[in-house]
Amino acid sequence: MNRLSLLVLLAGCDSAVVGGSPDAATPSFDPGTVTGTPQPEPSPPDFVCLSHVPPTTAPDPLTVAGTVLAMTNGSLVPVPAVELQVFRDGQPVVLGTTTTDTAGAFSLAAVASGGHPLRAYLKATKLGFRTTFLYPPFPMSANATAVPLPTITDAAFAALASSFGVTQDDHENGVLLVAVADCKGNPVAGATLQISHGSSPAGTVHELGGGQYIVFDVPDGKTHVSATYNGIQLPEHDVKVRAQDPDCTSPRSTLTATTVIPAP
Fold first, then answer.
1. Into how many domains does the chain fold?
2. What pLDDT is stored for residue 1 in this prediction?
């Protein structure tokens, strides 16, 4: 299992405008609310894979493909003409570059891994949107061909922050979007998110529903991400949160996305 869930990548910061978590909350019809039919209790999360040993090999090259989706008014809309790059984590090495098509889709089919699980991240840039960074929770050990990469416009983010009564400090801090899922990829609602910067708790956590959480005002730099559910500790991993996109000549705020899952 290799679950690359969530966000996006980079390229030119001045590209013109053309035109957030794997399971966006959408309105649904619940027959129980109309007929009084008892609804079954949801199944508990599946954490059986917690004991799995991580893979030690990976295809070379790897394929990373998916769709960039904008979080707008409670729905996800494909975003064309997003400039994308995949970077080797911890090094300024670009492993691939592409641009989303008219349906918001992208594909990077020649990401060099050297045959070993690859620590990498994706970056997406488009004028009018927050620059988005996606960090997988584990090194990539398999092809990922259906990655949903949510991003958000500056205006939509401002409305979201306002709805939570938050004034985001984009000069010093970044924002995290985190999805928590079980071994089957099902969202884990009601988890306790753990975000820390060094040895101190960081940011303010707000639950979006469907196992998704947004964390405002996370200090710039290395950040530890994990979660617990009913006393079960899920694996921790690190991401780099950025207050501003370092590759843009004019200020550009960011969004960092990742998932917490039991095993790769």
1. 1
2. 32
